[in-house]
Amino acid sequence: MALDDGTLLVLREWRKTQRAEALKFGFSTMNKNQLIFTNIDNKFLSPAKPRKWLIAAQEKYDLKSITVHGFRHTHCSLLFEAGATIQEVQERLGHTDVKTTMNIYTHVTKKTKKETALKFANYINIV
Asked: Where is the Tyr recombinase domain (predicted)?
């Protein structure tokens, strides 16, 4: 998956921090297959861990509740609003079939279709 330069910069900085922290516990993170986020034993995180972090941040900063999966949905919606095609979104989300993407995100694609019609109307000076 392609990532923008800003995201890559954040991940590179995290990798430096991760290396330093892991060394304190006797782990080398120089392996090319190193996980990005790990538990204290440098292994896979429990699937519930990101949710716990999210809840803690929401409570600490009095933020609206959203699930980890909700961020995936938001990412998809923003991709459509940015002009990504259904095929681009399908690939980004890892859906094997474009129908899956369409079925889950129909409400977003309807909005995009309406916006596309308005763009065309504006272009030919009807509106």
From this structure: 1-118
